[in-house]
Design goal:
The complex is a heterodimer of chains A (271) and B (328).
Chain A: H1 2-17, E1 28-30, H2 33-41, E2 48-51, H3 75-80, E3 85-88, H4 94-100, E4 105-107, H5 113-126, H6 130-150, E5 159-165, E6 169-170, H7 176-183, E7 187-188, H8 202-208, E8 212-216, H9 217-224, H10 233-236, E9 240-243, H11 245-252, H12 258-270
Helix pairs in contact in A: 1-5, 2-5, 5-6, 6-12, 11-12
Chain B: H1 6-26, E1 27-28, E2 31-32, H2 41-75, H3 88-105, H4 112-137, H5 144-168, H6 173-181, H7 189-208, H8 210-216, H9 220-225, H10 230-252, H11 258-269, H12 274-298, H13 307-324
Antiparallel strand pairs in B: 1-2
The chains are: A alpha/beta (271), B mainly alpha (328).
Chain lengths: 271, 328
């Protein structure tokens, strides 16, 4: 409920900031990969004139001018691109500077599964096409349901551990990754009450004994040699799903590619 | 308060070690949860493969830092000296950052131990390299001020280089953060063996040269007139300092304040000569880091607080108390 209310407030705030009947933007700079992807999925990739250093999908955006990282965007370079809209995250430090320079900005920070829809709806509204967002969202949900069917009934209810980083930080039930895993029928060993990406005691993982472990490829080898981890079912039975960096990007971003993320995760669970 | 006898303090610290060791073996991902009398396979594995090496390893790493702190403060005749002073900490970070980038580029295909030891080795090599560069810049170990300044410069430059690597490859930031906040979660028996060997060697070296450290406290000229051969003594002590720090940092990351606070704690309670100060500081360092580790896994279990954050809070709080207590 709180999430709904906050989404509503964000949308209203955006509507106040952006003139209601303004012409759709023609020169957009996006400073968040998931927002870059959202713009393109909505069919307006050609309006992008600049992106942040991490935006790398779809391939055609890689040729655009890069204007810096998420926290160190070059305001000067952005201004030089003469954007009529800059999409960025709420926490971006460029926001205040750009506003002071009278450049229209739209700040969205999708963190959860539902946030991704809010973001998509807000960007679609900017183009005056709210129905497109609703249609895409419905199609994405169908695709996620299809991905869920890739997991055979015998693998439903499988205990899974998704490691975000070797801290170890794990994706809990309340993260967007956890929400997707739940829809695929897996049981996340990290409960929602620990926060979305908690740093956990490694002992907890050994005790919970996950049947599938999903982890970045570069951490996979090191993980197997952690003290006591050799007895975890997933490692004993070779059910460790190592993600390459492209797969990692798809899964880490709460954006329009969550159906693809669901397919990758479904293959991990079905393995 | 009358200064305690060093022996009394020694016994007290050993007792603390025993109590905390028991706590360390009993606190896990579900809070207080002694497993000694449970027969299950998983329980036995958690106790013997995870908790025991972690507990002993945390104590050993703390002891190395406490020992290194005592050596550094004696060697530089400066109560604010800490083990990271010769650039070892930032050198280790830089090594780890480079290694993370290298691993990220080509996931290590090889036996498991390569992935496990690569980072440890990188940290160790980085720390030793930074200390060597400091020594070269200072043109040897003769001049305290030159050593300190070179250490500061090397620390700054290696810190900047790590930042540059992170800027080039932001993907490693999270892993670097774990390293810089310190982590005791993945200590295994092999780490314990390594830490124990290094502790034994550097502790023996420091105790053997403890009289020289006492003499150095009176100033270099006086020490020389007392018949102390300054250069060889300093060389051995600097090597012991670098080795102890590098081993600890490579295993547990950058843990703040232990090396600074442990010798102060000992000096505040007793007024020992270095023969006692050195081993007592090691004991105090071990007790402090183990206490921080137990708290780190207990307070928010099954979540963990980065152990370096706790040592900084505990150590910083203690130093403030030390500063503001009434002079007697």
């Amino acid at each position: 409920m709180r999430r709904l209310v906050s989404s509503f407030i964000v949308i209203v705030a955006a509507m106040l900031v952006l003139p209601a009947h303004a012409a759709p933007p023609k020169r957009i700079v996006s400073l968040l990969p998931s927002l870059t992807e959202t713009v393109c999925v909505l069919g307006h990739c050609d309006t992008l004139v600049g992106i942040d250093d991490f935006s790398n999908w779809p391939e055609q955006v890689q040729r655009l001018p890069h204007v810096g990282g998420l926290d160190d965007a070059h305001v000067e370079r952005i201004v030089a691109l003469k954007p009529d809209l800059v999409l960025l995250s709420n926490s971006s430090r460029a926001k205040a500077r750009l506003e002071a320079l009278k450049i229209p900005v739209l700040a969205i920070e999708p963190k959860t599964f539902d946030d991704a829809y809010t973001a998509m709806a807000m960007v679609a509204d900017v183009f005056g096409e709210p129905q497109v967002a609703r249609r895409l969202w419905a199609r994405m949900n169908e695709s996620i349901d299809q991905a869920a069917r890739l997991v055979p009934p015998s693998r439903k209810g499988v205990r899974v551990y998704f490691e975000v980083d070797a801290g170890p930080y794990a994706a809990s039930e309340s993260s967007h990754i956890g929400e997707i895993l739940k829809r695929l029928g897996a049981v996340n060993i990290i409960p929602a009450k620990l926060g979305s990406v908690p740093k956990i005691n490694p002992e907890f993982v050994v005790r919970a004994d996950p049947q599938v472990i999903i982890i970045a490829a570069q951490d996979a080898a090191e993980m197997q040699s952690r003290p006591g981890w050799g007895r975890i079912s997933a490692i004993r039975e070779g059910r460790v799903c190592a993600l390459d960096s492209a797969q990692g990007d798809v899964i880490a971003r709460p954006g329009p590619r969550m159906a693809e993320a669901a397919r990758v995760l479904a293959h991990c669970l079905a393995k | 308060m009358k200064p305690a006898q060093p022996l009394v303090l020694f016994v007290a610290l050993v007792a603390f070690t025993a109590i905390l060791g028991f706590a360390g073996a009993s606190v896990g991902s579900e809070g207080w949860e002694p497993l000694f009398f449970r027969a299950g396979n998983t329980d036995a594995s958690i106790l013997w493969d995870i908790r025991m090496p972690r507990t002993i390893g945390a104590w050993l790493a703390g002891a190395l830092l406490g020992l290194a702190g005592a050596i550094a403060q004696g060697l530089f005749r400066n109560p604010l000296a800490d083990p990271y002073l010769l650039g070892s900490a930032t050198g280790a970070s830089f090594g780890v950052a480079l290694c993370l980038v290298a691993i990220g580029v080509s996931p290590i295909a090889g036996p498991d131990w390569v992935g496990h030891w690569a980072l440890t080795l990188a940290g160790f090599v980085g720390a030793v390299a930074a200390v060597l560069i400091t020594l070269v810049l200072a043109q040897g170990v003769q001049h305290t001020l030159r050593l300190l300044l070179s250490g500061v410069v090397v620390g700054m430059v290696f810190g900047a280089l790590s930042a540059l690597v992170m800027f080039r490859d932001p993907g490693i930031m999270r892993a670097m953060q774990s390293f810089m906040l310190g982590t005791t979660g993945f200590l295994g028996w092999s780490s314990v063996a390594l830490l124990a060997i290094v502790l034994a060697v550097s502790l023996l070296a420091a105790i053997a040269f403890s009289r020289a450290l006492d003499a150095l406290a009176l100033g270099e000229v006086t020490a020389a007139s007392l018949g102390i051969a300054i250069t060889p003594v300093r060389t051995v002590l600097v090597i012991a300092l670098a080795l102890a720090t590098a081993a600890a940092v490579a295993q547990v990351g950058l843990i703040a304040f232990i090396g600074l606070v442990a010798p102060h704690l000992v000096r505040a309670l007793a007024k020992p000569t270095h023969r006692w100060l050195v081993p007592l500081s090691a004991l105090a360092g071990g007790v402090l880091l183990l206490a921080a580790d137990v708290l780190a896994r207990w307070l928010l279990a099954p979540r963990e607080i980065p152990v370096g954050v706790l040592t900084a809070v505990l150590g910083g709080g203690y130093l403030i108390w030390l500063m503001h207590r009434r002079p007697r």
